[in-house]
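Narrative progress, year one. The postdoctoral researcher (J.K.) led the effort to move from monomer predictions toward full complexes, under supervision of the PI. The following entry was the first complex the group processed end to end, covering 828 residues in total.
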Amino acid sequence: MQLTATTYRPFLTRFQSLIALFVLCLGISLLSDKFLTVANFWNVLRQISVNVCISTGMTLVVLTAGIDLSVGSVLALSGAITAGLLRNGIPVPSANLFIGFTVLGAMLAGILTGSVLGWFNGWAITRFKLPPFVATLAMLTIARGLTMLWTEGFPITGLGDSFTFLGTGWFLGVPVPVWLSGMLVAIAVLVTNKTRLGRYIYAIGGSESAARLSGVNIDKIKIVVYTLAGGLAGVGGLLVTSRLDSAQPNAGTSYELDSIAAVVIGGTSLSGGRGSILGTVQGAIIIGVLNNGLVLLNVSPFWQQVVKGFVILLAVIIDKRTEKE
Amino acid sequence: MLVAEHITKRFAGVTALDGVCLEFLAGNVTAVIGENGAGKSTLMKILSGVYPDYEGQIRLHGKPVRFNSIRDAQACGIAIIHQELNLIPYLSIMENIFLGREITTRWGTLDQKAMQSKTRELLDKLNLPIDPDTLVAELKVGQQQVVEVAKALLVESEIIIMDEPTSAITESEVAVLFTIINNLRRENKAIVYISHKLDELFTIADRYVVLRDGKTIESGSMQGIDHDALIRKMVGRDINTARRKTTDRVHDALLTVENLCLKHPVRLQENQLRNISFRVGRGEIVGLFGLMGAGRTELLETLFGLHSKRSSGTVSLDGQLVRVKAPADAIRLGMALVPEDRKKDGLVLGMDVQTNISLTALEKVERAGLLSQSKEVALAKQYIADLQIKTPSGKQAAKNLSGGNQQKIVLSKWLATHPKLLMLDEPTRGIDVNAKNEIYKLILQLADEGMGILVVSSELPEIMAISDRVLVMSEGVLTAEMAIQDASEDAILKAAIPKSMSE
């Protein structure tokens, strides 16, 4: 069969990020013999699992034509809350009480913290009709400040083996964080493709007024979406904290940018209504492989940032062109 | 001065202009009249360079011209003042007038002094003695219009097109505008004046051109024609449309609205709707006519729960008093709204046909809490067949279909909710004659099946063709109600023209 422009064009468009990923892997493996090893494979996947968690939530937000700049700070606070509760519990001196936390309890508290902050974002955006950019920018500062207050500016360390298992352990030959982020992705794929909530998210991003007239409760859906984004950032916080066995007050700084980059490279439109969770996962993998490859090739971290920036530009330019066709 | 010959413009499947010929003379005010959808705005967009691709020829001072951009048209001396003014509110009068053509000093900085004095000169000429540094946001709408005129004069425009210039201004401002137009006429400019308000035209226009269905029907001197004859030319046509058979059937009440009021979103003392009471029967088609800004769309939106915080009054459906706080309530109660702007409000354009159709009825295509692809396809297939939507498949993006087919998708998504009351806002705007007819047939059929239907339209023939009863609104108030047997286009139009304008 002869390949003409019309026959291979749709194929290219559909799989453009996978093709880019393949080319990237091929290139790096030719330049470094450490890249194509089993150890490095799991290493990359483990590293990106935090970004995958955050970016899954970010994708939902961006699909509604919103944005969440606060995920990095929310991640830090969630991790710090979990670590603090594990380490110190809550002493109540007046009643001469001490409330201790199990690992599971502390983890749920951390995720809950993220969800509450996310809910607050959604509430502020819908109640006061704030642009998501502004509301979540405010939350970026608020959550970072709360993290500093909670940790008093020092890392909280020594969290115990059962907690660090979450970030460093293996299960059936696969790192635990990869299991966790993989399961969250699977749920998110199901929600976006197979539920009313998912459909409404796409509809709101496609045309908010049409969705409203179709009986969609816009405010409710948006609040749910921002709450999920906060909760998923919270999960990311647990992974980071557990991996380092330490909650750093400045953890997650600028993670929102990597997350937005993953979403955009994955083909989700920043104006909403178009994109997918799996696209974002590909975006996160591309960024992860790129980071890993540049490290293996001994490229200076400063150059890594420059390269990453150009990759984002390239991805968006290609996306714009395919959108027109 | 400007002659247009056989201008034809087609949009994907729709012929908006069909061999239009007309002439604008220097020192004359030419009124371009026609109903909504007659092609006035398309024509103006061609003349002002917005649409560069059309068939036919335009000659200016005898020379053939073709405008490829708004700048081209401006350079040839054609200025257009749109109904929605194109001013930037937080810039001053001077900055707006000189936007894109600033005077600079030889250092490359802005020459404020020169621009200020030129602005003052223009404003004086137009009798608007206001400081050039005043922000446009602080001006009244009438004054903003004068600023637009000043913008046109700055580039020494020969032809000034005004689109519905009096739709948003008060009587005294109209008087000011007319003085300005008279002065421009004396300076030998050609003025093109588009308006629905026929009475105004007799005051200000010298000549008229009537457009209907994208064709020039007639042109001539205003002196030789009267009000009624002009209306006849605008609306009188042989349409072979589906038509409601008038019967004396009695309809059980379905919707009863009493004393519905809607506060203005900003000026809370003002009401956009005042004490509106009416009813729609089961199986009855009620036509609601009104000019732009009469409050027709607001009425439908209020009934549909979009303005529940600002509205008061009682609504009953099937004899039950209902409170509709949001569209979801309205849908649950059996109401449906086909909105005026189908591209923005009716459809999610980027989504495919089947996703748009199922959007209002997702609970019907679920299986065990998850959306079922096969049920969704089946639902869409049913309506694509029933309404004869022309689409390669249910997977086609809505934005790729023609206006008529898009409207059928909107109708499908509402029919999928099995409503008792179907409200339609300008259901056939921008749709070609055939699709129009199919939609009329569908509406008639739905009414025969017992659905109550409320149709808002600013096209009189449409109202006359399909209604059992006609309501007329003007300035937020119901001004007339008549059975179709007693209704005439004249009577409807008279009731629709705002009192403040006709006196």
